Each structure stands twice: as C-alpha cells, then as structure tokens.
Amino acid sequence: MKLSELLRLECVHVGSLANDKALALCEIASMARKSPICRNVSEEDILEALQDRETLGATAFGNGIAIPHCRMKGISDFVVGLMTVPNGVNFEAEDGEPVRLLVFIIAPHEQSDTHIRLLSALSQTLQDTDAVARMIAARSAKRLADIFLRAAGQDIQTPQPVKRNLVHIFVQDEKVFESILGAVSSLEGISLSILDAASVRKDLTRIPLYAGFSDAGNSSVCKVITAMMERRLSNEIIRRVEGVTGSLFECTGVMVTAQELAYCAGSLEM
C-alpha cells in the first residue's frame, strides 16, 4: 500500500479560515464525511472521535504541521485528507508555532497496526520542509494534492499481523530462576529479557507505620523474565515453568502473568 493511494481528493481543501482548533476539527469532520468511505458514519461521530483523540494529547508535532487522526467503527478503509490554514491556528504544538498544514486520518477501528505505520509514513513525508512549504503556499486543492502525491511515494508495509502475547514470570528464588530461565530460553520463536526487581516488603518496612514488621528471613530478590511470543506458544511457556515449580496454583515465590498485545514489532537477540 502506498501513502499516495490513501489520499481522498474530495478531502483536500486550501485556505481554511478556521481561527481555533475546534473550528479546524469541525471542517475536517465535514470534509471526511464527503468521502464515500465514511458514508456509514455521521459528521458528528467523526468530530467526536477527533476530539477524543485530541484530549489524549495534541496531534501537532511542530514546524506548523498537525496530523489529527482517529479510529472509527463503520468504515472499511483509510481516509487521508489535507487542509491548509494560511493564517495559522493554535493546535497546542510544543514549539508554540501555529499550524498551517493539517494532514488528517480517519482509520478503521480494527486496523491499529496499519494506522501506526501510516502515521509513521506521514511524519517521515512531512520532514521534507520544501514540500511542506509548497503545500502551505498552494492556491488550489489540485495543486496541494499534486505536491503531496509527489512527496508521498513511499510504501506502507502492511504484513499480516501475528497475534502475540507478553508473558511475565516473577521469581523470588535465584536457583529456581536459573532453572526456569533454562527451561524457557530453549523455546524457539520468543524474545526474552530479564529485569531485576525486589520484594515490596523490604521497602515497606522502611515506612514508619510498618517498621515493626521485620523483613528478616524474607528474600528481597525478585527476577522478572519477560517473554514475547506468538499467542499459541503461551501455554508451552506455562507448561515449562510448571515443569520446574509444579502447579503454579500451589506455588509460592513464582508468579506468571500473560496479556494479549495490541501491537508488537521487531525482535530481541538472545
């Protein structure tokens, strides 16, 4: 998929007179609704989704550029649009600069991985300061789209997502830790890392209220093995841990947690 393939020409506008963020978002929602891809969602729903995203943190990233974006149920593909605001609008950018170019994304709710990759591709494209200056200076929607399309030639990698889990193995005994590490490290297709932690009791007894509770005889050692793997391997990890400890439901000093990951890319070397 190419970034240029996602630009919807009906969602390109030059010369917006918006003088604050709220009005700019209203214009974006109105433009996005013009795309046939958004026919199953209302302008009000698009605006609400954009506003909700802004409450998490401003989408302006400096140099007069912002990328308002949101994910929505009810759309089947990405909608990318462009809008220039020649007089600038306050988008709460960290550098304090008013935003003059807005590139927006309305994304399918289910495609978070591709959404992240699209944001990354856009941010890379907008590093071209000459192209950005020409976009801001464009006098017509066609000219703005043409400049963007020339700058946005890169592919967006969209590999088939692999469902992964993150497993934490907490171990409070050094010898048991070594045995568990040996058991799980031989499993292919996982990425492992180890963190040194400590039992909370040691620090808790330093608080005056709990000073009468001695931590003598209680080990403060706590090793944490983190493992990222395909979801199908989670049960095998647990089986190997229980091969060392016995049933985890009857075990003290070892705890295993597992959670599904919404996004995972890359790998770690052993």
**Helical residues, percent:** 25-40%
Q: In the CATH classification, which architecture of the largest domain applies?
A: 3-Layer(aba) Sandwich
Structural Rg = 25 Å
Shape, per Cα inertia axes? elongated
Could you tell me the CATH topology label of the largest domain. Answer: Mannitol-specific EII, Chain A
SSE-based structural type: alpha/beta
- Uncertain stretches of 5 or more adjacent residues: none
Give the CA-CA distance, first to last residue. Answer: 33 Å
Count the DSSP helices.
8
The H-and-E topology, N to C, reads as EHHEEEEEHHHEHEHEHE
Give a description of the structure.
Helix content is 33%, strand content 26%. It has 270 residues and is an alpha/beta fold. The protein folds into 2 domains: 149 residues, Mannitol-specific EII, Chain A (3-Layer(aba) Sandwich); 97 residues, Alpha-Beta Plaits (2-Layer Sandwich). The strands form 2 sheets. Strands 1, 2, 3, 4, 5 and 6 form a 6-stranded mixed sheet that branches. Strands 8-9-7-10 form a 4-stranded antiparallel sheet. The radius of gyration is 25 Å and the shape is elongated. The two termini are 33 Å apart.
